[in-house]
Design a protein that fits this description.
alpha+beta; Aminopeptidase; 2 domains
């Protein structure tokens, strides 16, 4: 469980002076500082006041076998899977009659509702570490981009209710699932239809593998882990410490 302890103003934190530290402040999640890869283990140095303005939590994303900083709490488990696209396509059903899955152009005004739905679902599923509000250009930057291979929408009764994307990977023969979600009750079946379509589109592109990242607290995607074919997987754990005062 994520602590809801109130944030102390950084300038009121005793001993909070500027000093070198292995912290990164992401643009999308301004309320968190994240440990970067130069951290060598143990208790990290407390961030300086120049970094702590508006920050409510410190976070570290580590391989499952790695030890977190002392006293930090586990808030999320993330699994990254790489599975054969053909096997995934066979394991997930196509959409039944009624809902419609359509490809969208990769840029332009027609993509705007799809990007807006991305942003709403992203905010709804990241309440423990809220993203910044995003304007239209920022939504296109975060959820669109030059590496977008496929933009897929799910329509029901004429309304856009679900989305999925495929992105170009740096690894030959691999397509990466950007994100999948739906804005309707009982959305896991809709996500299965979208992921199955992504797998079939991956095969049509001549790519063999599909890679997907699933957070354990994603109530729509996490149930699909049981349906995944065998393949390489990596597990990461996200650890957190609320910002209340520097350690004594």
């Amino acid at each position: 469980m994520v602590s809801t302890a109130p944030d102390a103003r950084p300038e009121a934190a005793a001993g909070c002076g500027p000093r070198p530290s292995p912290w990164d402040r992401g643009w999308l999640h301004p309320q968190a500082l994240r440990l970067d890869e130069v951290w060598g283990g143990g208790e990290p140095p407390w961030p300086g006041c120049d970094l702590l303005g508006g920050v409510r939590r410190l976070r570290a994303v580590l391989p499952a076998a790695a030890s977190p900083p002392p006293g930090w709490s586990l808030v999320k488990i993330t699994t990254i899977l790489r599975v054969p696209a053909a096997a995934l396509a066979e394991s997930l059903p196509p959409a039944p009659a009624g809902p419609r899955l359509w490809r969208l152009p990769l840029r332009g005004p027609a993509l705007a509702p799809w990007l807006a739905l991305h942003a709403r679902r992203y905010r709804a599923t990241h309440r423990s570490n809220p993203p910044r509000p995003l304007g239209a250009a920022e939504r296109a930057l975060v959820f669109g981009g030059d590496d977008l291979l496929l933009a897929l929408g799910l329509w029901r009764d004429g309304c856009l209710v679900g989305f999925a994307s495929l992105r170009r990977s740096d690894t030959h023969g691999v397509a990466e699932v950007g994100w999948i979600g739906a804005e309707e009750p009982g959305a896991t079946p809709a996500c299965a239809w979208l992921l199955g379509r992504c797998a079939r589109e991956t095969r049509r592109m001549g790519l063999r593998w599909i890679e997907i990242e699933i957070d354990g607290d994603d109530s729509q995607l996490a149930p699909l882990l049981r349906q995944m074919p065998r393949g390489p997987r990596q597990v990461f754990r996200t650890w957190e410490r609320p910002v209340v005062a520097p350690p004594s």
